Amino acid sequence: MDNDIERVLYSEETIKEACQRLGHQMAHDYQDKNPIIVGVLKGAVLFMTDVIREMDILAELDFIDVSSYNGGTASSGEVKLVHDLSIDVADRDIILVEDIIDTGRTLKFMQDLLKERHAHSIKVCTLLDKPSGRVVEAKADYVGFIVPNEFVVGYGLDYGDQYRNLPYVGVLKPEIYENK
């Protein structure tokens, strides 16, 4: 897999430091609030796991799976709910944990869904924020890194459901996904 990576953007150690920083900040902000931490499947699982280990607070966990990529390198523009939450979010504080915010469509879809379900508050924590990819208004409250407009994989992020298990985030060589 390493041979398919053009360059490493964020090392395992740098990611660990970001997880500690974000986890401590959210624990401070949510002291005595018992939030529901919602991981966005599948990409955010590794990040969510490492971040919540740094949060010394009571919290519930749940997962949601939405899709707009369908295995490719660009968003299809249509967001689909693949797996819904199992916890009632009404009057609860929610922390959405994302791997990357790119176009903003997926995030907006999830925020609208949680608002319709009367969540008390919704905050967003993302490992990577790619503001250059935005097509709709979307903003994270807690950001690991601002990422350049390149196709990245690793640490949960995939191409064709591969590369998620890399311990770092790297830029995938264009020849891997071009002409596919």
Automatic annotation (TrEMBL):
- List the molecular function annotations (GO) for this entry: guanine phosphoribosyltransferase activity; hypoxanthine phosphoribosyltransferase activity; magnesium ion binding; nucleotide binding
Q: Which biological process, per GO, is one annotated for this protein? A: hypoxanthine metabolic process
Any idea of its EC number? 2.4.2.8
Q: What is its main location?
A: cytoplasm
| Cofactor requirement | Mg(2+)
- State if Glycosyltransferase is listed as a keyword: yes
| Reaction(s) this enzyme catalyzes, per UniProt | IMP + diphosphate = hypoxanthine + 5-phospho-alpha-D-ribose 1-diphosphate; GMP + diphosphate = guanine + 5-phospho-alpha-D-ribose 1-diphosphate
A Pfam family reported for this protein in Swiss-Prot or TrEMBL? Pribosyltran
Entry GO CC: cytosol
Domain of life, per the record?
Answer: Bacteria
Q: Where in the cell is it found?
A: Cytoplasm
List the keywords (alphabetical). Answer: Cytoplasm, Glycosyltransferase, Magnesium, Metal-binding, Nucleotide-binding, Purine salvage, Transferase
All residue ranges annotated as the Phosphoribosyltransferase domain in the record: 13-159
UniProt-listed InterPro entries: HGPRT (IPR050408), Hxn_phspho_trans (IPR005904), PRTase-like (IPR029057), PRTase_dom (IPR000836)
Q: Which family is it part of?
A: Belongs to the purine/pyrimidine phosphoribosyltransferase family.
Q: Which NCBIfam families match?
A: HGPRTase (TIGR01203)
Q: What is this protein's record name?
A: Hypoxanthine phosphoribosyltransferase
Source organism (scientific name)? Secundilactobacillus malefermentans
